[in-house]
């Protein structure tokens, strides 16, 4: 039996000199989140950005 669950998602970031780092917003105004590293890497290659990985571990 598992004693914990994990949740991982990837958030692309735009880097600009005047504003610093900002998360990329979607059409709905929320930050974009990807479930797989492959998807976010493809998005960042096309849009020239970097990404950060968020990993949450929930203990029971």
3D architecture notes:
The model has no long low-confidence stretch (mean pLDDT 87). This protein starts with a strand and ends with a strand. The protein is α+β, with helices and mostly antiparallel strands and 60 residues long. It has 1 helix and 3 strands, in the order E-E-H-E. Helices cover 18% and strands 45% of the residues. It has one helix at 37-47, and strands at 4-16, 20-23, 50-59. The protein has a 3-stranded antiparallel sheet, covered by helices on one side.
Summary tags:
alpha+beta, 18% helix, 3-stranded antiparallel sheet, elongated
Structure, briefly:
The chain has 60 residues and is α+β, with helices and mostly antiparallel strands.
Task: Please outline the helices and strands.
Elements: E1 4-16, E2 20-23, H1 37-47, E3 50-59
Antiparallel strand pairs: 1-2, 1-3
Binned strand content: over 45%
End-to-end gap: 11 Å
Helix share bin: 10-25%
Structural class: alpha+beta
Write down the overall geometry. elongated
Strand line-up in the sheet with most strands: 2-1-3
Segments where pLDDT lies below 50 for 5+ residues? none
């Amino acid at each position: 039996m598992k004693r914990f669950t994990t949740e991982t998602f990837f958030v692309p970031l735009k880097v600009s000199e005047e504003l610093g780092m900002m998360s990329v917003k979607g059409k709905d105004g929320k930050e974009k989140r990807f479930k797989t590293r492959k998807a976010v890497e493809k998005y960042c290659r096309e849009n020239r950005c970097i990404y950060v990985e968020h990993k949450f571990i929930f203990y029971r």
